[in-house]
Structure formats: structure tokens, C-alpha cells
Design brief:
By secondary structure, the chain is α+β, with helices and mostly antiparallel strands. It has one domain: Gcn5-related N-acetyltransferase (GNAT) (Aminopeptidase). The protein has a five-stranded mixed beta sheet with strand order 1-2-3-4-5. The N and C termini lie far apart (about 60 Å).
């Protein structure tokens, strides 16, 4: 029996149009994003500092995203930091987040990074369970100080 499983392609968003097409999915993770135009401007600024946006496309439409960058710190060495990881709510359970993270893990291995790091909210138990399942370990707590600008 044949199934009509949609083909999902992973590729980096390179053009402004490709980045803009990701806005609605990214907004599911980052509801503070005010407009597609400001999202594009911010992504372009971040890309100047090494940010890459990996997209899972289903029939040419973004359904999951992973934003990441190259970083180096004395404590961790040279690593990939995952800023953003989101699967559209309508596509959850299809292992798209797993595919995106596996792509980043393989990239990190082939380019000889020391590790892959990401942060998640303390109360985000579903994400934490997913990261543990992916072989990631909780190594500390992330602290922040709001400057009130």
C-alpha cells in the first residue's frame, strides 16, 4: 500500500525571500517578533556574525527551523550554539526537530567542533525530554540580567 508521505528537504535559508518565508514558523517560537520585515533585518544582522538558518521544507514550505552559529569560549572550546529550534505545531511528532539537530550534530563532527550547545527554559519539560533523548545533557543553568532599555 502506497503512502502519500510528504518529502521534506533540509536547506539553509540564504536569500531574503527564503528568510521571510520562515517568519510564521519562527514566530511560533518567538512570539515577540513584531513583523516579518524586522525579523529579516535582525536575521541579516545576525548572519553578519555567523548565524545560519536551517529550514525543513515540505513541498517548498518551511515547517521546522534551526538557527545556529559558530562560537568559541574558554570553557567550551569551539562549538556550535543552537539559538532557535522549532517545528510548526501542525507538524510536531514527525521527527523534524530530530532531523534538524542530527544535521547540526553531523556538521559539528565533520568540522571538528568540540560540542553542540543550546539553552531551553527551566519549565520546558517537553523540550528537555527531547534533548535528553537526542543525547544532550543538562550541564548548568543560564542566567540573565535585564537592562530595561
Amino acid at each position: 500500500m502506497a503512502t502519500n508521505t510528504p518529502q521534506v528537504l533540509l536547506k539553509h535559508a540564504e536569500s531574503d525571500a527564503e528568510v521571510l518565508a520562515c517568519f510564521n514558523v519562527m514566530r511560533e517560537l518567538r512570539p515577540n517578533l513584531s513583523s516579518a520585515e524586522s525579523f529579516l533585518e535582525q536575521v541579516n544582522r545576525m548572519r553578519e556574525r555567523g548565524y545560519r538558518l536551517l529550514v525543513a521544507l515540505e513541498n517548498g514550505v518551511p515547517v521546522a527551523l534551526a538557527g545556529y552559529r559558530d562560537k568559541e569560549m574558554l570553557i567550551h572550546g569551539h562549538f556550535i550554539y543552537v539559538d532557535d529550534l522549532i517545528t510548526s505545531e501542525s507538524r510536531r511528532g514527525q521527527k523534524l526537530g530530530e532531523r534538524l539537530l542530527q544535521y547540526i550534530f553531523e556538521l559539528a563532527k565533520t568540522q571538528h567542533y568540540s560540542k553542540v550547545i543550546l539553552d531551553t527554559g527551566i519549565g520546558n519539560a517537553l523540550a528537555q525530554r527531547f534533548y535528553y533523548r537526542m543525547g544532550m545533557l543538562a550541564m548548568g543553568m543560564h542566567f540573565s540580567y535585564e537592562l530595561g532599555n
